[in-house]
Fold this sequence. Notes:
The protein has helices at 16-27, 58-65, 87-108, 142-161, 186-195, 215-226, 245-256, 280-286, 294-306; strands at residues 7-11, 31-36, 49-52, 70-73, 112-118, 164-170, 172-174, 200-203, 209-210, 212-214, 234-237, 243-244, 262-265.
Amino acid sequence: MTARRSSCIVLGGGGFLGVNLCRRLASAGHRVRAFGRRCLFPEALDQVEWYQGDFCDATALAAAIETYEIVFHLLHATTPQSANLDMAGDLQQNVVSTLALLDISRRLGVKRIVFVSSGGTIYGSCKQIPTLETAPTEPITAYGVGKLAIEKYLAMYEHHYGLQHRILRVANPFGPFQVPIKNQGVIAALISRAIKNETIEIWGDGSVVRDYIFVDDVIAALQSVMSDQSDMRIFNIGSGCGRSLLEVIGSIETLLNMELKIEWRRSRPVDVPVSILSIERAKTVLGWAPSTPFKVGLQRTLDWWKSGK
Length: 309
């Protein structure tokens, strides 16, 4: 007998991770609905039901979620830079709206919420590198504080109401369908500007080190936690390796056979010097591990951009 596939709704289904996740879930035979304010690549979701709505609209959210068992919460209305400029607005749009989501999910009998948190901002300037899930969480941006608050509310709702959850603290994902419209995704920004022969602004001297992971590996991790029955709730998802921004720029220049036009700016206080995640828990508990080498993922990303999207 063939196992019944879960019904899944992806909040933020029109975004970078959302489009990739919806496509993978649909190809695996799940009933999938994508929810969001807009979708930049509607043709990519031709096998998925699109439900347009605002995350802050509880009525629209409840109508979208009804009859779906698993909720993937990928939405966040702000960025690490913009959240600090309007902390009250960041709290209202993301944390308060998520509280409404949790009440709606509990009322409608949702079986599990999978939340994409931030491996790059939750820990702050952590001394433990690579950083374990058990490391102190000391975010230095309102964005990270908001993500952490949502994590805590998810734990509280499971404790009080039995609403299951899993949290993926994702490092720096990159790949097809990522476009730099919110000043997020340095690889997408670099490639986009390079193809247009435009200058890109870089804050700092390029020495900051980040953990970059190809999107296909992130999606595989999201699929893994759909059915995870372990006692763990939080998983770091990254490559486990660090690369400086200068290294990333060099790799793109090599693949494009051109020198990028960089305008260097003063470093920002929101940027921690080094962020690399330990992924041993995900390997051990989920049986998950990244399988795409950085340069292979980078080439696939470049191919997508060159194809005209």
